[in-house]
Design goal:
This protein has 388 residues and is of the alpha+beta class. It has two domains: 111 residues, Rieske [2Fe-2S] iron-sulphur domain (Rieske Iron-sulfur Protein), CATH 2.102.10; 219 residues, Naphthalene 1,2-dioxygenase Alpha Subunit, Chain A, domain 1, CATH 3.90.380.10. Helix content is 24%, strand content 24%. The strands form four sheets. Strands 2-11-10-5-4-3-6 form a seven-stranded antiparallel sheet. Helix 4 crosses helix 8. The longest helix has 21 residues. It is globular and about 80 Å long. The two termini are 20 Å apart. Bound molecules: FE2/S2 (inorganic) cluster and fe (ii) ion.
Length: 388
């Protein structure tokens, strides 16, 4: 009797994980309404009264800057009869957050100020009708919130991910000075794919040679990433091709370098997934931040922002960022198209048990990403991520 040789493949998640509303509901409870999610940059709420609104699971959340300059987050739910308080994705609430329905007014720190005809109800303690606060953390200029009653400490969610990617060199990340960079360009992409398909794609480069001609021309290592089942990120970054002085379509865009960088940071790319909804790409002259909004089991909005040192995008600056922006814009379009090639077939009978991960995909997707996913979902990971 012969024994079948062990497969070099690992299984992916089964197809219904990418389509099933029941799975998506579980993800809302266990991930989107529990973990720390990236919402906006502090620059988006620069002055008192400015707000950003975002949807997380079944909730909508406001991030508001107070008169004391503090950032706070609240559920966007009026304590009277539940109207949405802010009706746009961003804006200026002025001195108070005023409900559009019956005009209850809240201070920027969430306390109820007054309501029409308050005399008839002044036996009520206003303190009992403050807006519901939401946990908020600001990290290198990125604002994260958690809807958990008692979230895991923010640092415990974020740093292990960064350490995995940068080999524990936290100073390297700090050198990019994210909090001091400003927006140069934003593009919103509506992607007809489950959020995990897009994230899995971002964590393997097996596809790079096939669909990213401009990217592999810039980063030749991406053409054919070798390495077996234990292949992980190169914590030293990926070096630009010879003759390429910048991460741009031409390869020669001349933009000011980010101030704090050191010589060995030059001509290098670092890309990282900060679960559950943020990608960060570090480059010598800009940083790209992707934010995910998980809209439904089969649709995801991806907001991509290109951040630059202020002098690069100052009004009279002699620089053109278009060449640099265009490179990752094409990568985005290519990646999102590929994600959309897969999504319809997640319901196919041929994909009921999922597909396979080749060796170079196994460490980061199969072990690192799926292990996190199963732990977050509270599912016993035994059997997942193991050789089939
Ligand atoms: S629902 Fe907000 S004031 Fe009535
Ligand atoms: Fe890609």
């Amino acid at each position: 009797m012969t024994t079948a040789p062990a497969s070099v493949f690992l299984p992916t998640l089964p197809g219904h994980y990418y389509t099933d509303p029941a799975v998506f509901e579980l993800e809302k409870r266990n991930i989107f309404e529990k973990q720390w999610l990236y919402v906006c940059r502090a620059e988006d709420v620069p002055t008192p009264g400015r707000f950003v609104r975002t949807a997380l699971g079944d909730e909508t959340v406001l991030v508001v800057r107070g008169r004391d300059q503090m950032l706070r987050a609240f559920l966007n739910v009026c304590r009277h009869r539940g109207a949405q308080l802010c009706l746009t994705d961003s804006g200026d609430a002025g001195k108070a957050i005023r409900c559009p329905y019956h005009a209850w007014a809240y201070q920027l720190d969430g306390r109820l100020i007054t309501a029409p005809n308050w005399q008839s109800m002044d036996s009520i303690d206003k303190a009992d009708y403050s807006l519901h606060p939401v946990h908020l953390a600001e990290w290198h200029g990125l604002v994260w919130v958690s809807l958990a009653a008692e979230p895991e400490p923010f640092e415990e969610q974020i740093w292990p991910q960064l350490d995995y990617r940068l080999g524990g060199d936290r100073d390297k990340f700090a050198r990019y000075g994210l909090a001091d960079l400003v927006l140069g360009k934003r593009v919103d992409y509506e992607v007809a794919a489950n959020w995990k398909i897009i994230q899995e794609n971002f964590q393997e480069c097996y596809h790079c040679g096939t669909i990213h001609p401009e990217l592999v021309e810039t980063l030749p290592q991406f053409r054919n990433l070798t390495g077996g089942a234990d292949a992980t990120y190169d914590t030293d970054g990926y070096l630009f091709a010879e003759g390429k002085t910048s991460f741009s379509v031409s390869g020669t865009a001349e933009l000011p370098r980010i101030g704090g960088l050191e010589e060995h940071d030059d001509r290098k790319y670092y890309g990282m997934v900060m679960r559950p909804n943020c990608f960060i790409s570090l480059l010598p002259d800009h940083v790209i931040v992707h934010r995910f909004e998980m809209l439904s089991p089969e649709t995801t909005r991806v907001v991509c922002e290109w951040l630059f040192p202020p002098q690069t995008v100052a009004q009279d600056a002699p620089y053109d960022i278009a060449d640099s922006v265009e490179l990752f814009h094409r990568v985005n379009q290519q990646d999102f198209a590929a994600s959309e090639w897969c999504q319809p077939n997640m319901k196919s009978r041929a994909y009921r048990n999922g597909g396979v991960l080749v060796p170079t995909e196994q460490e980061i997707i199969g072990r690192w990403y799926y292990r996190w996913y199963h732990e977050a979902m509270g599912v016993d990971p035994a059997g997942q991520g193991e050789r089939s």
